[in-house]
Amino acid sequence: MALKIVDRCVNCHACQMVCPTGSIRKGKNDAHFLINQDTCTECVGSYDEPQCSSICPIECAIEFSDGSPVNPFGSLTGLPLDKAPLV
Amino acid sequence: MLELKVLGDHSETEVPQGGCSSGSCGSTDDQLSHLSESVRQRVFNHPCYSEQAHHHFARMHVAVAPACNIQCNYCNRKYDCANESRPGVVSELLTPKQAVKKTMAVAANIPQMTVLGIAGPGDPLANPNKTFSTFRMLTEQAPDIKLCVSTNGLALPDYADELTKHNIDHVTITINCVDPEIGAKIYPWVFWNNKRVRGVEGAKILIDRQQEGLEKLVERDILVKVNSVMLPGINDKHLAEVSRVVKSKGAFLHNVMPLIAEPEHGTYFGLMEQRGPTPKELQELQDECSGDMNMMRHCRQCRADAVGLLGEDRGAEFTMEKIEAMEIDYEAAMVKRKKVHDAINAELAKATTQSQSVNADHAIPAETRPVLMAIASQGGGLVNQHFGHAKEFLVYEASPEGVRFISHRKTDLYCTGGDTCGDGDSLLGGIIKALEGCEAVLCSKIGYEPWETLESAGIMPNGEHAMEKIEDAVWAVYVEMYQNGKLTDNQTQMTA
């Protein structure tokens, strides 16, 4: 059980600062942030909600292990679907 | 002969080229005059707070604070552009150590740089370790630099004490509302107590924390400036109330800024086509608020990594790559900096003790209506720029009481063509829109085509005052308009 950061991440560091298990680090060579799949607990036992995806400002940047976005398009900004940026 | 007061005139001081080119813009001494002497002592050399200072002293921002704890509908965290100048935009993120090195490199090379600010690109207090370790190192290694910080306020009450420990005596809080219902239209969510809190509930938390933070800073004798973004249809009717509230709690300056929102910025407001205020709307609101509180009009809404005098950006001279190659002897730099600062302070002191007046050739009856004029200037407080080269115009008001600076208007922020411009698809259409409310444009030269277009839009071009001091030129044009009967219906004869 672990969340995953994908390349829509803009490297704002917010998730790293709130992760209770220290599972988030910056990727090498300016790549986006990454979650250690072995240590991420999805914050179970620490908080009611996963912390990284609760502070992440970018929709569809963090995914569940099945590949679905924790914060789907429109869920953070309230933008209608027809304003979706090309992914 | 009437002694006509020109507000904030400081013709005897040398205005550096490259920065704001207005001879007297923003919070002139009339606007800072209600401040206590101790507060005035603390702002006189801060370019963002003192209108006079911003002609002489430079500032810089270091981008060490990327994370944010709230979302604002005018901000897009994905955006990064070297060519654009607006808040939240940066080219490279720095570690605290890099930021200290960059600050000292700039201080050594631009000795008139007095202020280092941290303004993001996220929220500085949502990155407390990076922000405070930068401040800690600078307090030790560069004690002659003032430090300041700009925040959304959510984390502010927790850091009020920490803020007093460094060389910080100015904090800016962005407060767009004091009503959570309005706040919910500006802030979709805040991250609070380990949860994302949305809507009115989230906005209420933010507003309460901002107000608590403001009170705590004032109690600790830290100067607080409040920034507000004017959002027509959302908070424009509400900001006078915001002004009243923050002033009653001790904020010393209020800065109402226009929304910058274009679809290509990718912000919620940009994509939803929320419009910014027209220059006229902005000025009316600033005037309305100034009845209540000290206003600021020379703000350039700069980048989170800006370097130099307001109105210029020398960031490209100080990239990390270039800084790595620089050898800095800060002990020597401090000696040089002190000399430069003393010289500027002496100039400023001379300017304030000198009589700020000019002889007017004509008195204008007190009931005569005021006129706004736009000036194309590239510095030195002179009418010295070709109309076609102007990227911003300085707007002055002439009235029987004299000439005062009102605002600067950037032409590239407004319509430059396309379907949002009602005047057609020309750059000129955008300029005319930016100059709304102005009756004349003073420039060194102007082409035939824009001349005709401006004239038919009711804005009189004027190239007769090239190289003259702005205030003198504006007054001369005002007198001429009066003499030609353009200012009163029942004009009889001159009284002078």
UniProtKB/TrEMBL annotation, chain A:
SUPFAM superfamilies: 4Fe-4S ferredoxins. Keywords: Iron, Iron-sulfur, Metal-binding. This is 4Fe-4S binding protein. It comes from the Bacteria. The lineage of its organism: Bacteria, Pseudomonadati, Planctomycetota, Planctomycetia, Pirellulales. Residues 1-29 form the 4Fe-4S ferredoxin-type domain. The keyword Heme does not apply. GO terms for molecular function: iron-sulfur cluster binding; metal ion binding. InterPro entries: 4Fe4S_Fe-S-bd, 4Fe4S_Fe_S_CS. The keyword Iron-sulfur applies. Pfam families: Fer4_10.
UniProtKB/TrEMBL annotation, chain B:
Its cofactor is [4Fe-4S] cluster. Residues 1-13 have a biased composition (Basic and acidic residues). GO terms for molecular function: 4 iron, 4 sulfur cluster binding; lyase activity; metal ion binding. It comes from the Bacteria. Keywords: 4Fe-4S, Iron, Iron-sulfur, Lyase, Metal-binding, Nitrogen fixation, S-adenosyl-L-methionine. Pathway: Cofactor biosynthesis; Fe-Mo cofactor biosynthesis. It holds the Pfam family Radical_SAM. Residues 54-303 form the Radical SAM core domain. Residues 1-26 are annotated as: Disordered. InterPro entries: Aldolase_TIM, Di-Nase_FeMo-co_biosynth, DiNase_FeMo-co_biosyn_sf, MoaA_NifB_PqqE_Fe-S-bd_CS, Nase_CF_NifB, NifB_C, rSAM, rSAM_sf. CDD domains: NifB (cd00852), Radical_SAM (cd01335). Belongs to the radical SAM superfamily. NifB family. Involved in the biosynthesis of the iron-molybdenum cofactor (FeMo-co or M-cluster) found in the dinitrogenase enzyme of the nitrogenase complex in nitrogen-fixing microorganisms. NifB catalyzes the crucial step of radical SAM-dependent carbide insertion that occurs concomitant with the insertion of a 9th sulfur and the rearrangement/coupling of two [4Fe-4S] clusters into a [8Fe-9S-C] cluster, the precursor to the M-cluster. This is FeMo cofactor biosynthesis protein NifB. It comes from Blastopirellula sediminis. The lineage of its organism: Bacteria, Pseudomonadati, Planctomycetota, Planctomycetia, Pirellulales.
